[in-house]
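Subject: design request, 683 residues
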């Protein structure tokens, strides 16, 4: 059997359609599985005027479902051998006899339960309930109400289609009863379509200029864009974000090719593309040689009888946009980036943290110190930082804010700045997100890293960390950026040190505990990132417990520990460490060192000598990042630690002896922690 459900409404916001498409697929799939209703395939209807699903090969009934109902406690259910009113009431509600019940043991005692089988339901009944449930469970960003009802949806609902083969599935949503009617394209076929069967849906709608399936329409949109470009001798670059946005605006995509005067090609490509893409939703095109062409592709939602007139209208609009871009570019070229630096002093970064000019000065100092630490040219990074935000006050960025950094790179090159300086400028904004690339050059990486550290330190210093789901300053993204940038440097900077330096540069006194809070905040992002990559959570936490903030080191240590964790010797290593940690749980360091003169057992002396040697070996191995060697050294202590615990009473009656033995245990623990906090590893 085939099933179709369509919710017809006024034009949905294009920004909400991808989310609704995803939610419909997830919710319907989940609820069909929960209901044990079998089917072969499910596709989502998501277009400007309709939402729903098409489900093929639906089973006639859902499967029988076992269930368990918990009744009263055993003591309350029986008095002697006779059922009490509590049990009789429980049985009456289920229409069963007391002897149909069972008694189970739980951690809270014995309870009466009834185990039964819920018979499968007809598909029409199940699907009707699911449709209503999905609508109720939708997460809507900007719902609205209409008429006198209290139902909420992004736009008013005008019709509901729900059919299983040739039968209407009856239910009511948004005050409208389901039926067998839908509507064609608003302009090309605005008539009512009555379906005889659900299987007709897709083809009948195509006949009235509607491609309802979201992915099918997206593929058709990209196909018409490519074919239109090829027929005009140019090529388009794939841009899934723009394609998805256009797909959310049309029900019947029609590609059209327009062009603009070649004089506009004197403007940087990124500015022309920004004007076409950002303002008009046009795809830019390139020539066979890869250069930007003066042709563009637009997608209409109608097959016009006068396509040249439609193209002419689009050309007039884009000509005005490109004229603005050319004017801004020519105006900006009249002054240098450097001359705009002073204007940053009048732009507030944060009321408590000063202006953008002051922030630039802080970032410059921090970036220069970082560059010196890795033996990079401080003059290059200093110049790059000073110029990095100057394009914010340019005419081009005021009109096209997405060109921040990118146009600054171009302007720096036009001003005759060194290639390393101009290239580094665009690095300030990379990575913009989890999937965005990091700067290719070391100076761009240093610029981006120091800027994010300053932002994080400043906002944590004034006690404005993210709370719950609220993150107005995108600090979580900044912290992830810090980790990715440090990893990209391949120099394994100790981020803990540079977090300290970033706090020292702030113009305010830090809130209590702010520094530790920020370090933990970054570690939390690191942990999530590594565990999402498939690494064991407990091992990641164990490594973080002893490791400075250095993503490259952390990941290497995690990989090494996972390799060793499969061996029997590793389990013994973890067990020994946990024993040591438990002994030291309530121990307060008295002297801070071990006194060999207090040894009374050869096992003490032996362990002391070995742990002293091993600690040096592990420190050396860690400094070289040969963690396999470090773990092997730790394992070599096992015979000595086993002999110590077998022959020595740690908690001796004599206070001095006891403290000395605990100090020896502390040495063992500290040797382990040079690699990881093994007590946190689960075995």
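Subject: RE: design request

Done. Sequence follows.
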């Amino acid at each position: 059997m085939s099933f179709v459900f369509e919710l017809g409404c006024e034009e949905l916001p294009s920004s909400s359609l991808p989310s609704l498409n995803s939610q419909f697929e997830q919710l319907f799939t989940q609820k069909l599985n929960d209901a044990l209703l079998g089917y072969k395939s499910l596709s989502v209807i998501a277009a400007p005027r309709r939402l729903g699903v098409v489900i093929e090969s639906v089973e006639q009934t859902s499967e029988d479902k076992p269930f368990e109902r918990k009744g009263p406690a055993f003591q309350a259910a029986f008095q002697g051998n006779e059922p009490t009113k509590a049990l009789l009431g429980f049985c009456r509600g289920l229409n069963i006899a007391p002897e149909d019940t069972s008694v189970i043991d739980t951690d809270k005692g014995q309870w009466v339960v009834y185990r039964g089988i819920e018979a499968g339901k007809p598909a029409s009944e199940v699907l009707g309930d699911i449709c209503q449930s999905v609508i109720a469970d939708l997460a809507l960003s900007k719902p609205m109400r209409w008429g006198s009802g209290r139902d909420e949806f992004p736009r008013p609902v005008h019709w509901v289609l729900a059919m299983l083969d040739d039968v209407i599935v009856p239910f009511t949503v948004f005050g409208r009863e389901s039926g067998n009617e839908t509507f064609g394209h608003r302009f090309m076929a605005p008539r009512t379509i009555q379906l005889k069967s659900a299987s007709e849906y897709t083809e009948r709608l195509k006949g009235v200029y509607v491609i309802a399936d979201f992915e099918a329409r997206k593929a058709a949109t990209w196909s018409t864009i490519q074919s239109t470009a090829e027929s005009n001798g140019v090529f388009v670059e794939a841009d899934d974000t723009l394609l998805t946005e256009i797909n959310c605006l049309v029900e019947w995509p029609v590609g059209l090719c327009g062009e603009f005067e070649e004089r506009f090609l004197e403007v940087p490509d990124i500015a022309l593309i920004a004007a076409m893409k950002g303002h008009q939703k046009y795809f830019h095109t390139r020539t066979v040689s890869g250069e930007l062409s003066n042709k563009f592709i637009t997608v209409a939602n109608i097959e016009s009888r006068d396509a040249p007139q439609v193209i002419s209208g689009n050309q007039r609009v884009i000509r005005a946009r490109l004229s603005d871009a050319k004017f801004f570019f020519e105006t900006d070229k009249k002054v240098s980036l450097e001359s705009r630096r002073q204007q940053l002093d009048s732009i507030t970064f944060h009321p408590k943290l000063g202006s953008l000019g002051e922030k630039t000065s802080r970032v410059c100092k921090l970036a220069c110190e970082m560059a010196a630490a890795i033996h990079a040219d401080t003059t290059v990074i200093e110049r790059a930082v000073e110029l990095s935000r100057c394009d914010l006050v340019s005419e081009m960025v005021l009109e096209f804010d997405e060109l921040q950094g990118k146009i600054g790179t171009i302007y720096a090159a036009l001003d005759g700045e060194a290639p390393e300086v101009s290239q580094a400028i665009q690095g300030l904004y990379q990575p913009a997100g989890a999937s965005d690339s990091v700067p290719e050059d070391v100076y761009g990486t240093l610029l981006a890293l120091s800027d994010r550290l300053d932002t994080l330190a400043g906002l944590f210093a004034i006690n404005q960390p993210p709370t719950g789901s609220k993150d107005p300053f995108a600090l979580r993204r900044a912290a992830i950026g810090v980790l990715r940038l440090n990893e990209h440097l391949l120099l394994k900077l100790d981020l803990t040190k540079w977090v300290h330096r970033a706090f020292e540069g702030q113009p305010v006194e830090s809130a209590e505990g702010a520094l530790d809070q920020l370090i933990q905040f970054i570690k939390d992002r690191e942990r999530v990132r590594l565990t999402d990559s498939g690494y064991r959570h407990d091992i990641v936490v164990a490594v973080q417990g002893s490791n400075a903030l250095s993503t490259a080191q952390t990941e290497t240590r995690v990989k090494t520990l996972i390799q060793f964790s499969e061996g029997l010797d590793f389990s013994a290593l973890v067990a020994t460490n946990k024993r040591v940690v438990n002994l030291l749980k309530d121990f307060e360091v008295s002297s801070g060192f071990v006194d060999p003169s207090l040894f009374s057992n050869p096992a003490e002396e032996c362990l002391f000598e070995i742990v002293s040697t091993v600690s040096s070996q592990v420190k050396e191995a860690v400094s070289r990042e040969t963690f396999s060697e470090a773990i092997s050294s730790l394992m070599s202590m096992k015979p000595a630690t086993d002999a110590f615990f077998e022959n020595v009473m740690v908690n001796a009656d004599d206070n001095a002896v006891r403290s000395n033995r605990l100090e020896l245990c502390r040495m063992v623990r500290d040797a382990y922690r040079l690699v990881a906090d093994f007590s946190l590893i689960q075995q």
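The radius of gyration is 34 Å.
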